[in-house]
Design goal:
Layout (H helix, E strand, L loop, with lengths): L1 E4 L2 H6 L3 H13 L4 E3 L7 H4 L5 H18 L1 E6 L3 H13 L7 E4 H9 L12 E5 L2 H6 L4 H8 L5 E4 L23 H4 L1 H16 L6 E4 L2 H14 L4 E2 L2 H8 L3
Parallel strand pairs: 1-2, 1-3, 3-4, 5-6, 5-7, 7-8
């Protein structure tokens, strides 16, 4: 049975085609049989946190039926919102669950790659690491994405000071380190400020070569901040780094 790669269309709509291509390349390298979701918007996980509760429930029920009809064994996504929504929000609030497991792309890749003998080219780069707020603070996923990067020789991982704020018992009230998710949709002026502030205060002092993130939405905002500030480093999703380093 195939895996449903959920998020491909959304990446393309955001102009993040290189992330989409890197995910598809890695799945092919790992001999993973996958399909994409033609009716992807995304819907339920986007509507729900914005307050469109009944609309989200309707879309969620439709997605459940679609997943059943596709006869897949698992859903994977580069976005953290579907993971949190389907593992926590919808089961708790609607009593709705997917008929199959859903995983973030980094968890899925690590579960396969940790048991494979894969050769990577050496990359002597400093990588600033941004933990997506939903995957990190809400789901507690921190080490699997880092372990993927540790497979590549030469990579130095640079952690920002407050990457586990809100998960380790500290407060999130005074911190905002992501312009992704719904901020760009609801408060674009604030998103612009956060994008530039995150780069200037959190990452520029670390002098990275690359900034990566566990969330495609977060990386979208970070890439805009890098562009606006004309910084010398670049934004790359974890799958892009892995695909570039893969030894042919």
């Amino acid at each position: 049975m195939a895996i449903l790669y959920y998020g491909s269309k959304t990446l393309q709509n955001q102009g993040l085609n290189s992330i989409d291509e890197s995910i598809k390349s890695l799945l092919k390298r790992l001999d993973v049989d996958y399909i994409t979701y033609e009716d992807e918007k995304p819907c339920a996980e986007g509507l729900y946190p914005l307050g469109f509760v009944e609309e989200a429930k309707k879309e969620a029920e439709k997605f459940i039926e679609d997943v059943k009809s596709l006869q897949i064994e698992k859903v994977i996504s580069p976005y953290a919102a579907p993971l949190f929504t389907w593992k926590k929000s919808f089961p708790m609030d609607f009593g709705l669950s997917l008929p199959v497991e859903i995983e973030h792309i980094t968890n899925f890749l690590y579960s396969i790659m940790k048991n494979r003998d894969i050769s990577f080219k050496r990359m002597d780069v400093r990588v600033g690491f941004h933990d997506g707020c939903t995957l990190g603070r809400k789901m507690g996923v921190y080490e699997e994405p880092r372990n993927l990067l540790r497979m590549v020789p030469g990579i130095e991982i640079l952690n920002i000071e407050h990457q586990q704020i809100g998960f380790d018992g500290t407060t999130v009230a005074d911190w905002g380190s992501c312009s992704g998710a719904w901020l760009n949709m609801t408060l674009p002026e604030l998103a612009d400020w956060v994008e530039e502030n995150v780069i200037a205060e959190d990452f520029a002092p670390l002098n990275p070569d690359i900034i990566t993130s566990t969330c495609a939405n977060g990386l979208f905002g970070i890439s805009k901040g890098i562009e606006k500030g004309n910084y010398p480093f670049k934004a790359m999703f974890i799958t892009e780094i892995l695909d570039d380093a893969w030894e042919e």
